[in-house]
């Protein structure tokens, strides 16, 4: 990858945890303050050890390299902790022929939607939970009247749509009503519940 392509790729990066990047200037400033303090001490050493100036200059050079390595490490770790990603918008078009071929029979759709604490993270100004709910609503629009569907929100607990009320309008209201997240994810419980519905 040439330098221009690398710069272009870096500029396209988005971050799930943008707040982590805000700590970067403060961390680098702290490193620079420590560097200035170290350099002052080395300057005093240069005055005392004037006969060993070459050795002291070598120590200064090693110190500078060490500081630069620390700053580079801090930058890389901070960027990784911020969870970088590249966002591409793509539209998937399903032709009438594909719909006729694959969706001509009755199907059952069980949507499992994570609403744990991690779903509060923001992507382009919207939370993961909002994006997941938007996808679920679009899936409902694609289903036919003869299709069956069931919605399960899972985190430390399950919130399920009532089996006796499977109307599309009610399901939309149900999806939109879940806005608060929970502490942690228990996907095994959600999968077990989905399998039990399939067996029914």
Count helical runs. Answer: 7
Radius of gyration over C-alpha positions, nearest whole angstrom:
28 Å
Q: What letter string, H or E per element, gives the SSE order?
A: HEHHEHEEEHEEHH
User: What's the CATH H-level superfamily name of the largest domain?
Assistant: von Willebrand factor, type A domain
Query: Can you tell me the residue ranges where pLDDT is under 50 for at least 5 consecutive residues?
Result: none
Q: Count of DSSP E strands?
A: 7
Form type: elongated
Main sheet record = 3 strands, mixed
Q: Which structural class do you get from the secondary structure elements?
A: alpha+beta
Overall average residue pLDDT: 76
Q: List the domain count as a whole number.
A: 2
CATH class bucket of the largest domain = Alpha Beta
Question: What is the spatial order of strands in the main beta sheet?
Answer: 3-6-7
* Terminal CA distance: 53 Å
Proportion of strand residues: 5-15%
Q: Would you give the CATH topology of the largest domain?
A: Rossmann fold
CATH architecture verdict of the largest domain: 3-Layer(aba) Sandwich
Structure commentary:
By secondary structure, the chain is α+β, with helices and mostly antiparallel strands. It has two domains: 3-85, no CATH class; 95-199, Rossmann fold (3-Layer(aba) Sandwich), CATH 3.40.50.410. 57% of the residues lie in helices and 14% in strands. It is built from seven helices and seven strands. It has helices at residues 3-11, 18-48, 53-81, 96-102, 128-142, 168-177, 187-199; strands spanning 13-15, 84-86, 108-114, 122-123, 126-127, 148-154, 158-160. It has a three-stranded mixed β-sheet with strand order 3-6-7, sandwiched between helices. A two-stranded antiparallel ribbon has the order 1-2. Strand 4 and strand 5 form a beta hairpin. Helix 2 runs antiparallel to helix 3 (53-81) and helix 5 runs antiparallel to helix 6 (168-177). The longest helix has 31 residues, at 18-48. It is elongated, with a radius of gyration of 28 Å. The model has no long low-confidence stretch (mean pLDDT 76).
